[in-house]
Design goal:
- It is a single chain.
- The chain has about 425 residues and is an alpha/beta fold.
- It has helices at about 75-80, 90-105, 125-130, 145-150, 165-175, 190-200, 215-220, 240-245, 280-285, 295-320, 335-340, 375-380, 395-400, 400-405, and strands at about 15, 25-35, 55-60, 70, 70-75, 115-120, 135-140, 155-160, 175-185, 205-215, 235, 250-260, 265-270, 325-330, 350-355, 370, 385, 410, 420.
- The protein folds into two domains: about 85-295, 3-Layer(aba) Sandwich (Rossmann fold), CATH 3.40.50; about 315-420, NAD(P)-binding Rossmann-like Domain (Rossmann fold, 3-Layer(aba) Sandwich), CATH 3.40.50.
- The strands form four sheets. The chain has a seven-stranded mixed beta sheet, sandwiched between helices. It has a six-stranded mixed beta sheet with strand order 16-15-14-17-18-19. A four-stranded antiparallel beta sheet has the order 2-3-4-11.
- The protein binds zinc ion.
Length: about 425
């Protein structure tokens, strides 16, 4: 069942008063979307009249190390209990992971003796590519259903949160890891210090801990405010990461800017006294981040979001005024933030299309907008699609050229709301 409860008088939501990386209590609030529903808490029809979990969606910045982070933590048992996002389902991500595994396998000369551990391994898509590269693999993921599926498909996966106890257990059974990867999970973990302790337990002296996280600089510059949701606790730039790992006896030895999620960083971390040379890129990227260390940057960001919401509501209102029917395309986690931040509800979008069969037939958290398969584009024939999964805008528009040829309109909500040519 889905959890549906009031957060009042419960332990479901907890506000943090200290920085997750440096422990400082000198935090300043830089953005608030008020209380929003949990972005992945899609509802079935019989759950629509039950109470839902809403939690504050507020960003703080640390005045000491400059890390931007969510103030409130929702109990992971509630947050991740019905996680529907399966990475292997998206062809864009499959190609990305194939390239990722190849690059890492070559750079670190992985052999049949090299253990690669992926934390938050999901359906095992990244590990399946490391397996093809000839490495030993092991997945760790807390989602029981997805982990079981991965194991069944030949990607051995331990069901657990990544903590020092988990790491000790893995070390005893499998030995040290040459490569530990973590994608997004390093931004989704509240206790990042325990996570890093676990990495240290497993990381070989010449090993590399490599993680990809959405890049705060892209989030701000490209106005990707809908990347802010309850699972996404930490919003990284290079500066605070360099100082954090230094205090842990580790060292950021390389950073790459990659296109995932509208712009991410792939961060390479090794032992401070390990063999990896530090790339010039680390200092170069940090040098370009000075605006992210200023509160005024976030004040401008908040104003830009407000203006975008006004523009999008006006655009939808005009289309509807002309008798056109508007629907959404894509129901990723970020769609809930977008709807709440921009004030979009069921009176503006008749329904939302999603290509994942797992989501079809369900309803959006909070707004209760129904989710339908893309066949409705040709059966029900709406006039306009607001692309909520904007990172797939290109492939959505390409796959549905016929819809556009029949007069259908695609609208992208970011960086500013606009009709696609
Ligand atoms: Zn800090």
């Amino acid at each position: 069942m889905l959890f549906s409860m009031n957060t009042e008088n419960s332990n479901v939501v907890r506000a943090r008063r200290d920085c997750r990386l440096c422990g400082s209590t000198d935090l300043v609030q830089v953005l608030s979307f008020g209380e929003t529903p949990l972005a992945n808490a899609y509802l079935s029809a019989d759950e629509l009249d039950k109470p839902e979990v809403f939690a504050p969606l507020v960003l703080n910045a640390c005045n000491t190390c400059k890390l931007v982070q969510l103030r409130d933590v929702v109990d992971p048992k509630v947050l991740f209990s019905r996680y529907l996002y399966v990475s292997g389902t998206s062809p864009v991500f499959v190609a990305h992971f194939a390239d990722y595994a190849k690059t890492v396998a070559q750079r670190f000369s992985l052999t049949g003796d090299s253990l690669v551990i992926d934390v938050g391994s999901n359906d095992g898509v990244l590990l399946s590519h490391f397996k093809k590269e000839g490495a030993k693999i092991l997945g760790i993921d807390p989602a029981e259903n997805i982990a079981a599926e991965a194991t069944k498909n030949g990607i051995s996966t331990i069901v657990a949160f990544f903590k020092p106890e988990t790491a000790q257990q893995v070390l005893a059974e499998h030995g040290q890891a040459k490569v530990i990867t973590a994608n997004n999970v390093f931004a989704h973990t509240d206790d990042i210090i325990a996570f890093t302790e676990a990495v240290k337990i497993l990381l070989a002296k010449d090993g590399a801990f490599i993680f990809e996280v959405q890049y705060l600089k892209d989030l701000i510059e490209q106005n990707l405010f809908d990347m802010v949701y309850h699972e996404h606790l930490l919003y990284y730039h290079v500066t605070p990461l360099v100082s954090f790992f230094k205090t842990c006896g580790l060292r950021v030895f390389d950073v790459e800017h990659v296109p995932t999620h509208g712009g991410s960083i792939r961060v390479y971390v090794g032992w401070d006294d390990g063999p990896h040379q530090t790339s010039n890129r680390v200092a170069q990227m940090a040098a370009q981040e000075s605006d992210l260390n200023e509160v005024s940057t976030y004040q401008i960001f908040a104003k830009r979001i407000e203006a975008g919401g006004e523009k999008l509501r006006a655009l939808i209102k005009n289309l509807r005024g002309e008798g056109k029917r508007v629907v959404g395309y894509g129901a990723p986690a970020k769609a809930t933030t977008l709807c709440y931040a921009f004030g979009i509800d069921g009176s503006m979008l008749d329904y939302i299309i999603d290509d994942s069969p797992l989501k079809q037939g369900l309803y959006m958290p909070g707004t209760h907008i129904p989710i339908k398969p893309s066949s409705v584009l040709y059966e029900d024939k709406p006039d306009c699609c607001l692309i909520l999964a904007w990172n797939f805008a290109e492939s959505i528009a390409k796959n549905h050229q016929k819809f556009a040829e029949n007069g259908g309109i695609f609208v992208s909500p970011v960086p500013e709301p606009h009709i696609l040519p």
